[in-house]
Write the structure tokens for this entry.
Amino acid sequence: MGMDTSELVVPFVGALQASVSVLITIFFGVLTAQFNLLSVGAAKEVSRTCVRMFLPALLIYKLGSNLNKDTGVLYVPILIWSVSYTLISLGIGVVACRVFKLPNWVKLAVAFNNTTSLPLLLIQSLSTTGVLDVIIPPGDDASKALDRAESYFLINAMVSNSLTFALGPRLLRPSDEDTPDDDNREDDESDGEEDAMERGPDGIVHEETSLLPQRLVRPINRLERRGYRRTTQWLQSLPPWTQQLLDFMYQFANAPLLGTLVGAIIGLTPPLHRLFFSDSNDGGYFNAWLTTAFKNVGELFATTQIIVVGVKLSQSLRKMKAGEDSGTISKKSMAFVFLMRFFFWPAVTIPLIYALATRTTLLSTDPMLWFAMMLMSSGPSAMILVALTDVTGSPEEEKMVIAKFLTISYAITPLICFAVVGSLKATEAAVAR
């Protein structure tokens, strides 16, 4: 059976427009850095704010509103698939690095793609172009369908962030926006000394002096120090293997995961779901103020994080321009990562999810779930590589190589339109069965 050319051209152009809109948003971030509107330190702080505040707020709102006792099972396949494709990608990357003698950073570029801001912005752009209308079931509210799609991508982002926490330290180091960096740890260690100075008998006061009365601050500080010492002593008394296990589990205690847990608790608990998401007349007493606050803060995430991506790329390019020897990118490395991220995973994922959707009952009947799962493993490498070069003390030449690689990766982001069109047509075919 033949296919009209317009059936491919229309979604292809729509996907291309959405991809270019993401690229233009990144360009705005580059301009922000070029005109010194955002400093290096400020960009890191904004990035950490995105991951530790905006993303958890978005998770609480999106998951809480879409989760209930009937839809909770929808997210189980996403959890399994997210863990599976990330670990498989990492395994392929490790083998490729050993067999083809590729640089060590290649396995990270293959394992961790941009799972947060890029997919969310892409979905928003696709909804604007109208190409997603063909997979929205008749009678289904379009805005609710798009909310579900975003919540599916957010679950994938949470899994990716958690795996970065758990595996990152054992690969190289985790990203500065996703974990406490060295500067933060130094700040945390010095906080105790500063607090002792400002709250001590000498009465030193400055702009960071606590507003709480001294009679409250001192006992709280004493209690914190006593608890820290006792916890440290207890951990040191445990067997080494137990300490390693607890340390590994602690890596998962990150802000996106906590936001996911809060959203899941609210969504799966009927009284809480009613309080947060029902109309005020139906018992939703938190909806108009608290839920709206979470929504407003969460909606800052996607665009702000993409702007930061542009700022980071600009900073890397400045370093590259200033360096006398900026190094050369291995063509094998670049080709391998691009093939994996933009072609291999779409070629594997699209038919796999199509088969699961049409021939099994493992997935729900929501076309948005199928479409989201087909796209989750595609896209450029995550900006984790920019942070890794700084926190691990990589050689300057390697930093320049990685900066070039990421610049090219995001410059060819529109290549994802092929995966978008393939996912869209496969989902449409699955709906028609």
Notes: Confidence is low (pLDDT under 50) at residues 174-207. The chain has 18 helices and no strands. The chain has two domains: 10-179+254-432, 185-200+212-251.
